Amino acid sequence: MAQFSVSSEGNSNSDYDLTAAGQELFPQIKQVLSKDGKRPSARRRSHITAIRNWLCHYATPHEATNLECVRGYLEAFFHLCEIDQWQESANLLLLQLYPDKDDNLSSQLDVWGYYQELFKLFQQLLGKLEQSREVWILRGVGNALSSLGNYQQAFGVYERSLQMAQVCEDMYGQACALGNLGNACEALGNYNDAIDRHNESLQIFQGISEPEEEAKALGNLGIAYDSLGEYTTALDYLEKQLELSKKINDVRQQSTALGSLGNVYQVLGDYQKCIELQEQKLKIDRDVGDRYGEGSAYSNLGNAYYSLGEYARAQEFHEQHLAIAEEIGDQYGRQTSFTNLGLVSYALGRYEEAIVSHQKSLGLAQKLGNRLGEASAFGNIGLVCIAKGDYETALTFLQQHLERSQEIRDRYGEGIALKNLGHVYGVLGDVSKALECFQDSLQVAQNIGDLPGEAATQGSLGNFYFSLGDYDKAIEAHQKHLEIAKQTGRRYAEGTALTNLASAYTAMMDYEQALTAYQEALDIAREIGDIHGEGLTLGNLGNVYEDLEDYEKALEVYQASFQISEELGDQHGIASALANMGSVFLVTENYEEAEEYLLSAIDIFEEIKQLSAEAITIHKLAIVYFSVELYESALEYCDRAIELAAQASLPLIEDSRMLREMIEQAE
């Protein structure tokens, strides 16, 4: 007799006899199969015997995966299909596996992330049952396709489900189909269409008095408005979802609403409110024993602390999510966890660790057939390659991100990929290609009404113009970024836009406006609790004070930036602060201190593989040695700077070559 007892991919720490439901069901199936009283053919008898063995005598292997634990039911399903017992096959998918849970076989497979298996099961039933059941079957096929990231295909299946429900005058089925069509539209970046479908779904559920489904529809509307950047409206619908869920005592819907509300507050930069809501969600999930929901809450908390720049806490929460995902066999959750852990490693400057995590996410996405996850993983690996200065490899991965996004018609992902490609082409000096990508990204964002995406691309476009030395156009783009950020109430984005504006003002030597913009950005970072952003902005303020030759003030803010980076374990931030302080000591002719700080910075930049920053810092150290007439050391570091600058395609290479000539002349 099979016992439900699994290890890393299990669903429970307790043992449960999974075959019990099958043993109870088999006599009913046997009665149906023999109702005509005739002796079955040898082929039919063979399948009936197989069905009995799989339902009643299947023994799960030691340390079985969740899929192996329910293999008996899946095998019985296909044997029933072989002898055209479609009704019994469908009933098997609706079989309640646990006496204390509402989840049936198909919903449990969904929780575990076995979407390809679900697709095969529901696909097998298409066109085999009466129209009223066909509505449910089409919904199952569409949901599996959607979970796999095949949104366009899912959309077509949902449309068929809606048409079938209309023919059958199945109002519940129509409302479900409209809600699913709304979700598919949102995934495809058609946010206004999504809202229209969700509104239709909501009206039907309200009309047929289905409060649980009404609450889901309200939540779907909230999420759609969130994607559209209309956060006030999003909060309104999500609050209504929470209120209705409390009224009908649907604790799982309460948990879902709290999580969604928290995610909106995170986008708005109210991280403390986000954390408060996610902790409420976590308490509910723990109280009801919803391990899947608990993992989701940990993931959301990790994202909130990531936004705060508290990367150690973010990593802790994402690791807790990963542990739960592995425990319950949630393959999608595992993939999400690896993605988030990769983002944390990236933020900490641990680029090799980041790539390993994103490759694990990519491998799982490909194994699961999750094309959206695959596309995102390509994009994330590309971003790490950019940080490492490996632009050719970055180009390859970002191009794959773009292609996958276009294949599945993920307009949101397409816009992000184009923006990032524009950045890489800009670094590689292909100005026309960079501008083309940025303009295409803007067009995508504007077409789908993605205000946050439009703002982000304006910011990237501004940085591109900045790199070209066209500061007027840079300021124009950053002003647009700032306007949209203010319009949508996204404080974090507002701080980013102000920082970029300040950089442009600094380059134009308009230090008064630069200081004002940096101070506003610093105030926002402190207001929303963005510790990492606070550290970065202090570093930028130090750069302005250094340009103003107020070296005492520059050292003061660089030291404050260093302390924050140390508290966060931000290796890149630590190295940048050390390099900045070393630069001040260099210009003030405190060469001993300059050497100490610059060497420390170089060690870290080399460890985290930041080629550009390492090259610039090595160049400064070469100047230190030249200034104290240590020409051999000066030449050594000058040559290293030239080599790294060449690898990273930096204009610094010319300065380093000129320095080398000066050193040789002085020898």
UniProtKB/TrEMBL annotation:
Keyword Secreted part of the UniProt annotation: no
Q: Which residues form a coiled coil?
A: none
Where do the TPR repeat units fall? 215-248, 295-328, 415-448, 455-488, 495-528, 535-568, 575-608
Q: Any idea which UniProt keywords this protein has?
A: Cytoplasm, Repeat, TPR repeat
Gene Ontology terms, MF aspect:
G-protein alpha-subunit binding; GDP-dissociation inhibitor activity
Q: Where in the cell is it found?
A: Cytoplasm
Q: Which InterPro entries match?
A: GPSM (IPR052386), TPR-like_helical_dom_sf (IPR011990), TPR_rpt (IPR019734)
Determine the domain of life of the protein's source. Bacteria
User: Which SMART domains does UniProt cross-reference here?
Assistant: TPR (SM00028)
Q: Name one GO cellular component term.
A: cell cortex
Q: Which PANTHER family match?
A: LD33695P
Q: What is the name attached to this protein's record?
A: Uncharacterized protein
Species source reads Adonisia turfae CCMR0082
